[in-house]
Amino acid sequence: MNASAAPLPTSSGISDAARRWVMFALLAGVAMASLDSAIANIALPTIARELNSTESATVWVVNAFQLGTALCLLPAAALGEIRGLKLVYGIGLVAFGLTSLGCALAPTLSWLVGFRLLQGASGALTAALAPAIIRSIQPPAKIASGLAMVALTVAFCGAAGPSVAAAILSVAQWPWLFLINVPICAVAAFVLVRYAPPNQPQPRRFDIGGALLTALALGLLVVGVDTLGVHVQTAVFEIVGGLAALGLLIAQQSRRTTPLVPLDLMRIPLFSLSVLTSVCSYSAQILAYVSLPFLFQTVQHRSPVETGLLVTPWPLLVVVAAPIAGKLAAKHPAALLGSLGLACLATGLALLAVMPAQPSFIDVAWRMALCGIGFGFFQTPNNTTLMTAGPANRAGAAGGMLALARISGWCLGSALVAVVFALVPEQPTIACLELACGFAAFGAIVSVSRFKARRSGAAA
């Protein structure tokens, strides 16, 4: 660890009232980024019709946002450390509002996709830095609770995205899906500037070469994974290119003392194991989230409204479980809570895979609730461990890796759904649930190994 580096400020000097206002600004940024990653899906047919575009081309309204986020997460984390967390997060809020306005005023699909790419990049600033700011303003005993608020905000907004979009579209046109962000960003930015304490930046040169290699590697990998379900040969070419760029990136970053890609943090076993378990949990989550609607609507012939109600217990129980897990994380090791949570998630997924052919609402609901409890109990302790495993002056990089693990898990899980549906024509949804169960079970095993990693770290 770099003991000479300037630490981030602690919560001393900030009142409880100011801390609550700062948390509002942080959660507002996280909520908007989470909502906008899913809110446009339901409007794609309308956007395609009004902008005279094909449905396949309009899908890039969604893909561009995810791509922009993935490309900018690690550079955003580095900028937060170099220029100051408060400044860069505030820039992210303002930029998100401006790019949202651009999306609403876009005259063509090309303009809309371009602004969505920039909007995703702006969202990366808030997604990467919110956990680091929480660590800097909260006393040690409340860091887990603060991170639990982020986890449940992401879970709730991600699940509520389609419902929010439907409500907006019922009374307004699709540009209002983006216009609604503008006043929220303005208020959140004002609150952040007014109440967030300044933090000590760590001046150093921004690694432009590393940022470009990061964008190339992650861009090719994300696009390649997304292409797997459409054109396998092209996808393989893109993924191989991404892996080659990743190799060059690691070689370039290994020579730097404060790398853009936090290789210094990844050398800490407790940190790297927490990243791996996070990827496993989000892969399991998206495998279930994407495949279950096909089971409910195509196989069981339920309506979209019924499908939405059947999915609701999962995010609802995450909202309930995450704060409880945050309080328990202050007293019990994350290795224990995380393993129990992922084991509970794996059990719920396995039970979903073997439920009756025509289950009742209750049959589905209690299984989904079990998954939600498990996911909520894992995520908060794991995020707390990930954010506190390294030195305080690397909190920005840790926050970037936390967000990157989430995006990576979602991309991997989504690609696997496409692959399973292509290779397993008979009951592909059941195969997806079984694969999701495998990811959760493997994550539980990895989580258990953190007991040894923590003891080794303490001994060192």
UniProtKB/TrEMBL annotation:
Q: Could you tell me the superkingdom of the organism this chain comes from?
A: Bacteria
Tell me the membrane topology, using the record's own terms: Multi-pass membrane protein
Supply the Pfam families for this chain: MFS_1
Statement: the UniProt record of this protein carries the keyword Metal-binding? no
Q: Which residues cross the membrane?
A: 21-48, 60-80, 87-107, 113-134, 146-168, 174-196, 208-225, 231-250, 270-292, 312-330, 337-358, 364-382, 403-424, 430-448
- InterPro entries according to UniProt: MFS, MFS_dom, MFS_trans_sf
Q: Where in the cell is it found?
A: Membrane
Q: Which residues form the Major facilitator superfamily (MFS) profile domain?
A: 22-455
Q: Which UniProt keywords apply?
A: Membrane, Transmembrane, Transmembrane helix, Transport
Coarsely, its chief localization is: membrane
Instruction: List the PANTHER family hit by this protein, alphabetically.
Output: MAJOR FACILITATOR SUPERFAMILY MULTIDRUG TRANSPORTER MFSC
Protein name per its UniProtKB record? MFS transporter
The organism of origin for this protein: Roseateles agri
